[in-house]
């Protein structure tokens, strides 16, 4: 039941944040950027670590769905965080360096730990490492065999991040920290 309550909270926060057009634009722009990024990087397991147009040839429907879901979730996180940061700045006249530090401090951890960036880097490392390290093939093989589990774990972490960020937005709004 708590999970469903959290999802309702996310739905409510989406209504609040996307009531302003600029956050819809931010969501669309970040979705396009991250979807493009994931479409090109996720098939790197099959291209020997090469990222680029060659990746499109190896794109499967499963990787496309993972890319779509992760892009949606990351874009929600970005929109929620920017909503809080920009609203707080408008209401309080806070120093720009404080806002930038707060944005980076709240934005980077979910992206680094809760997205396939780290598995992508590990995959690229695993693909490049055979020439450098003797255990590189084992890393590449492990990632290739367990890619679905790794990406599913990344989606769960992103979902957790969306839920936690939505709770923060809800607290932010309930404490009247923004101007309507």
Shape: elongated
Helices and strands, in order, run as HHHHHHHH
What does the largest sheet look like?
none
The Rg value, from CA coordinates, equals 18 Å
Counting DSSP H or I runs of 4 or more residues, the number of helices is 8
Percentage of β-strand residues: under 5%
Give a count of the beta strands, DSSP E runs of length 2 or more: 0
Mean pLDDT across all residues, rounded? 77
Q: How far apart are the termini?
A: 31 Å
Structural class: mainly alpha
Poorly predicted regions: none
Keywords:
180 residues; mainly alpha; 0% strand
Protein model, in words:
By secondary structure, the protein is mainly α. Helices cover 78% and strands 0% of the residues. It has helices at residues 2-17, 21-41, 54-57, 61-92, 96-113, 117-128, 136-145, 147-174. Helix 4 (61-92) packs antiparallel against helix 5 (96-113) and helix 4 (61-92) packs parallel to helix 8. The radius of gyration is 18 Å and the shape is elongated. The protein starts with a helix and ends in a 6-residue tail after the last helix. The mean pLDDT is 77.
What topology does this entry show?
Blueprint: H1 2-17, H2 21-41, H3 54-57, H4 61-92, H5 96-113, H6 117-128, H7 136-145, H8 147-174
Helix pairs in contact: 1-8, 2-4, 4-5, 4-8, 6-7
């Amino acid at each position: 039941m708590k999970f469903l309550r959290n999802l309702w909270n996310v739905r409510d926060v989406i209504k609040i944040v996307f009531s302003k057009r600029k956050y819809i634009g931010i969501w669309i722009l970040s979705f396009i950027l991250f979807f493009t990024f994931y479409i090109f990087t996720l098939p790197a397991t099959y291209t020997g670590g090469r990222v680029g147009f060659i990746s499109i040839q190896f794109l499967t429907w499963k990787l496309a769905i993972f890319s779509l879901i992760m892009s949606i979730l990351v874009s929600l996180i970005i929109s929620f965080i920017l909503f809080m940061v920009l609203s707080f700045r408008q209401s309080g006249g806070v120093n720009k360096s404080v806002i930038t530090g707060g944005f980076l401090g709240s934005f980077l951890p979910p992206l680094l730990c809760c997205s396939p960036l780290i598995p992508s880097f590990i995959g690229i490392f695993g693909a490049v490492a055979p020439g450098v390290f003797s255990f590189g093939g084992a890393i590449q093989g492990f990632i290739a065999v367990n890619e679905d589990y790794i990406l599913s774990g990344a989606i769960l972490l992103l979902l957790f991040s969306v839920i936690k960020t939505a709770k923060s937005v809800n607290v932010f709004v309930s404490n009247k920290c923004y101007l309507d």
